[in-house]
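Field log, afternoon session.

UNIT: design team B
ACTIVITY: writing a sequence onto a fixed backbone
BACKBONE:
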């Protein structure tokens, strides 16, 4: 297991800062496994992805993504999006919004479990996969809201396994992370990392940012079995 001693950038967004960064830095292209597979993955998973919005302690908007994982409308997301925040709401793929209850916090994994208090009449939980079946070079897909650009898809490959990174405000590194090269930027945190079958295998948490760039080609996700421990959900 490699512990990388590089600066760590949590891929959530303060909205104004994200827009400035978007103007200053063009997003680097990532390889697409095939257009047909990417389109099929998007159609399968995008309805399960939500936008998570909160106000920081200073009153600034902070946003990221989350994914619905069960019939109770429970949502997995990154803890750093909502920690210390107020007025936490989620926006579903149909455009409806709901306040949430924070069901669980897993600070050692940067994971929060949210439960929508007013979910839409119809919603689609994602299918959880098996990160233990991943191999380096497998296709990787990320759906999120970079810079507020809702329901955006990026593609790449799994580029490393069992990584460890030290994040701000954590005394111990987050371990067992999946490394991937699909583009992630502010607003992608908390969104799903998806395998070639359309199953969620991880929750995006951040990226290595050694040169102050927005995206450097190295993203990380908490494995879905570790993330879902807050709900006791086993992988399918």
């Amino acid at each position: 297991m490699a512990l990388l001693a590089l600066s760590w950038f949590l891929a959530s967004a303060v909205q104004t800062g994200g827009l400035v960064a978007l103007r200053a830095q063009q997003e680097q292209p990532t390889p697409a496994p095939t257009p047909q597979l990417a389109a099929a993955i998007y159609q399968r998973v995008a309805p399960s992805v939500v936008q998570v919005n909160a106000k920081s302690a200073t009153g600034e908007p902070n946003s990221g993504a989350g994914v619905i994982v069960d019939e109770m409308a429970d949502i997995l997301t990154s803890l750093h999006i909502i920690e210390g925040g107020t007025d936490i709401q989620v926006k579903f793929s149909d455009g409806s919004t709901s306040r949430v209850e924070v069901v669980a916090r897993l600070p050692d994994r940067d994971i929060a479990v949210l439960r929508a208090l007013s979910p839409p009449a119809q919603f689609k939980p994602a299918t959880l996969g098996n990160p233990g079946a991943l191999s380096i070079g497998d296709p990787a897909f990320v759906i999120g809201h970079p810079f507020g650009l809702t329901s955006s898809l990026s593609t790449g490959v799994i580029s490393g396994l069992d990584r460890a990174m030290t994040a701000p405000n954590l005394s111990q590194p987050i371990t067992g992370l999946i490394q991937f090269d699909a583009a992630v930027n502010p607003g992608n945190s908390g969104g799903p990392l998806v395998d070639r079958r359309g199953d969620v295998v991880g929750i995006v948490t951040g990226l290595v940012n050694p040169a102050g760039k927005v995206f450097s080609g190295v993203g990380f996700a908490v494995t879905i079995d570790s993330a879902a421990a807050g709900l006791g959900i086993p992988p399918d």
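LOG NOTE: The chain has two domains: 3-44+126-230, 48-116.
NEXT ACTIVITY: expression trials, pending approval
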